[in-house]
Specification:
15% strand, alpha/beta, 39% helix
Length: 790
């Protein structure tokens, strides 16, 4: 048995349901492409044949609406009515959709309902320009979450490099989207920045002119305490949009809805749904607009015990919850505990819970001081301490307006700091006042994301692979039983939800994490940190270990140095983004090891087993798997912008494998495994229904993760293989199989004469794991043989 076949020619029938297919609106898989001016719709068209050959069913495109010129990500939208010209415009997008359709693929769009850019020049965002010119009376004022009362009736624009001197302003004639009249002044200019003029103010003296505007240009540092508009996290260049308003929803979604109605797009990824005032209401409105056939998933970070609201009309999440489970089941709990103890002893860092709480307090009272002040003003002085403490104590990203389940543990922790009475009164306010509850929830989401993902994760580093979006560094390991329970629940409740291992937002790609996580199986292999900053030394060594010898010379060194510089600024222990310490930052590259640390012996085999095992579990488990650009082969990337570098698509390697060559090295093994499972998902989707854990019996049973999908596919992965080797291997451990005869899918290439029999053998009842899984093949895919038909 070999890889499922592919074709390089158009195959529109790939997306048509067969007798065992789920609805056509569910992707078999998605493949994420990061669009940017250097990688346009035309570039994407050129790789469509490769992605069709790989087995993908849908292309997932990063945001495509008009954005700040030169943007490398597209989340800074400036115009919802146009497809981005730098990418090729609407004609280019429709041509890409047609090319994809000709190869049996469809498009999924990443859309950004929560925020728009506050760009430079400001005129790029026409609605915001009009609000700055006309103030609250502007028809666009309802678009943005602006607290005019907090700003003294003016919108703070923290866009200046230094505090403003009124003598720096000038009037420029005939510029801006509209002029007040022929030859009359139309814009206020400060250096290279231009702002609209309020009608009737052009003739005033500079100080009076500034005071008369509906906005106040200010130094960027004022945003921390004086900001009076909602933003994305702590990024003042992204202003919150009020899509809860039906008119704003219609205006900001018209182009996307047109693309869905025209069949250009079949699915949507909703960015940062937690930032919205009313996520459930937004999703109901969106579902009504796109219809039942559009596949919709939300970027929603779920805590370990948290579950997605069942009433949301979506297919599920984008998949960070699955990432945590796949990584967790391949992590050794005993070794992680040892690394935790060694890290804290060497660095003096408190335990995870205290680190996370400290980060939350710092971010809330510092970076989010303006947001906190707004909530405290709305709640009143008596409840202000309770607001602060409940935000810090809340265990998930956000509560939801009107939700009576306000985390009893969080209420108790907040009451211990602010008093039971004020916390009880705050709870009642949250239940009674929907507008206040929405603003509290939005602030909670920003706080949790910023304080966990962008602070505590960079401070608490016993095992860097555990500090990932959606992860829990305090409990990074899962048992096999916990993994099975999660998958069974997902198959039952959210079978169409997304799954991911690598994204544009992951701090380390899946293959870097696979290497780092083997350290949990051999914690003493991590050297004791040396130097004046043991925390940085620990982080630097694991980062270099994860990247290994990927890249060469100066390029690799620069990538590592860039990642470490971001790490120390986010950790905010010695330097920050806004208060940089040049002397300290100059020492950062010196903490990198001179040579790339590489695993050896059984630890190297364990790294390979982790990499292939994670890929198998991800591609075979319940849900819709997403492959990040270039990650169909071994892909080592660090935090952005490293993980957003131009992709390398392994077209030649895939063609070589399809011609019958054996995989050469781990990279091609992963490619072969990925292609095999994506092609099966596309051509035989019925194989991937349901979920049944398969038990192993014997002395090494804990090292096997195995499950059946439907009645026709079995996936088997090795876990903690370094420990397995040290304990004597599989020995007589066996795996119980579902009824029928099973044959192995030869995804790891032609094994040679010594192992040919293993691939040709069939299994019935049980399989001896020493034969099925070994150092040469740490994963296995079994397909049930169909009975001969007379």
């Amino acid at each position: 048995m070999s890889l499922p076949p592919h074709t390089g020619s158009p195959r529109p029938e790939f997306n048509r349901p067969t007798s065992d297919a789920p609805p056509a609106v569910t992707p078999a898989s998605t493949y994420r492409l990061q669009l940017r001016p250097e990688f346009t719709f035309d570039h994407a068209r050129a790789v469509v044949p490769h992605l069709a050959s790989l087995g993908a069913s849908h292309l997932h495109l990063s945001p495509v609406l008009e954005a700040v010129p030169g943007s490398s990500h597209g989340y800074d939208v400036t115009d919802h009515t146009r497809v981005r010209v730098e990418l090729g415009g609407e004609d280019g997008l429709r041509a890409l959709a047609a090319e994809a359709r000709g190869h049996g693929l469809a498009l999924v769009l990443d859309i950004v309902p929560n925020h728009m850019a506050l760009p430079s020049p400001l005129r790029l965002n026409r609605p915001l320009w009009e609000v700055a010119r006309e103030g609250p009376a502007s028809p666009y004022a309802r678009w943005f979450d602006i607290d005019w009362e907090a700003g003294g009736g003016r919108l703070l624009l923290p866009v200046l490099a230094e505090p403003l001197d009124p003598g720096d302003i000038e009037i420029k004639t005939g510029a801006g989207p509209d002029t007040e009249g022929p030859g009359e002044p139309s814009v206020l200019r400060i250096g290279e920045l231009e702002f609209p003029l309020r009608e009737g103010t052009a003739g005033l003296e500079p100080a009076a002119l500034l005071a008369a505007q509906w906005y106040r240009p200010a130094c960027w540092r004022e945003a921390r305490t004086g900001l009076n508009y909602r933003r994305f996290f702590t990024i003042s260049e992204l202003i919150g949009v009020r899509v809860e308003d039906p008119e704003v929803f219609e205006a900001t979604h018209a182009k996307v809805l047109e693309l869905v109605r025209d069949g250009v797009v079949e699915g949507l990824r909703i960015d940062h749904v937690d930032g919205l005032a009313d996520p459930a209401g937004y999703l109901r409105r969106l579902r009504e607009a796109v219809g039942a056939d559009c596949w919709v998933v939300v970027e929603k970070i779920l805590a370990r015990e948290e579950r997605l609201a069942r009433g949301w009309p979506v297919a599920g999440t984008t998949g960070y919850d699955a990432l945590y489970r796949v990584d967790g089941v391949l992590t050794d709990p005993a070794g992680t505990a040892r690394l935790d103890a060694r890290f804290r002893e060497a660095t003096g860092q408190p335990r995870w819970e205290r680190t996370a709480a400290a980060g939350a307090r710092e971010v809330l009272t510092g970076d989010l001081a303006a947001e906190l002040a707004t909530l405290e003003r709305l709640a009143g002085p008596e409840l202000a301490p309770a607001v602060r403490e409940l935000l810090i104590a809340y265990p998930v990203y956000r509560p939801y307006p009107g939700d009576p389940q306000l985390a009893p543990g969080a209420l108790e922790r907040a009451a211990a700091q602010a008093g039971a009475g004020p916390v009880a009164a705050l709870r009642e306010l949250l239940l009674r006042d929907g507008a206040f509850a929405a603003r509290f929830a939005q602030t909670s989401a920003a706080l949790r994301a910023k304080s966990l993902e962008d602070r505590a994760f960079y401070r608490y580093a016993p095992l860097l692979s555990a500090t990932e979006v959606g992860g829990d560094p305090g409990a990074p390991a899962l048992t096999v039983a916990e993994f099975h329970a999660y998958c069974a629940e997902r198959a039952r409740l959210w079978p169409r939800s997304g799954t991911v291992l690598t994204t544009h937002d992951t701090k380390r790609s899946a293959d870097v994490r696979a290497r780092i996580s083997v350290l949990s199986q051999d914690p003493e292999s991590v050297p004791a940190p040396a130097g004046a900053d043991p925390q940085l030394a620990w982080v630097a060594w694991q980062t270099a270990f994860g990247l290994g010898a990927d890249g060469a010379g100066p390029e690799r060194a620069a990538r590592l140095a860039q990642a470490l510089l971001k790490a120390v600024r986010e950790a905010a222990l010695h330097t920050t983004w806004t208060e940089q310490d040049p002397a300290y930052e100059a020492t950062v590259p010196g903490y990198l090891p001179a040579a790339a640390p590489e695993p050896a012996g059984s630890l190297a085999a364990a790294a390979r087993a982790n990499l292939l095992g994670a890929a198998l579990l991800h591609l075979a488990m319940p849900g819709v798997p997403e492959v990040y650009q270039g990650a169909e082969t071994e892909y080592r990337a660090l935090v952005d912008p490293d993980n957003r570098r131009p992709a390398v698509f392994p077209r030649e390697s895939l063609a070589r494998l399809d011609a019958g060559a054996a995989p050469c090295g781990t990279a091609e093994e992963k490619l072969a495994l990925t292609a095999a499972l994506l092609r099966l998902r596309r051509s035989r989707p019925g194989l991937f229904a349901g979920y049944a854990p398969l038990p192993a019996r014997g002395p090494a049973a804990e090292h096997c993760v195995a499950f059946a999908r439907s009645a026709g596919l079995v996936a088997v992965a090795t876990r903690l293989s370094h420990r397995l080797a040290g304990a004597g291997g599989w020995r007589d451990t066996v795996l119980a199989l579902p009824p029928g005869r099973w044959r192995r899918l030869a995804v790891l290439g032609a094994p040679g004469a010594a192992r040919k029999a293993s691939y040709e053998a069939s299994y019935e009842g049980t399989a001896l794991l020493a034969e099925l899984l070994d150092e040469a093949s740490p994963v296995a895919v079994l397909l049930r043989e169909e009975p001969d038909r007379a």
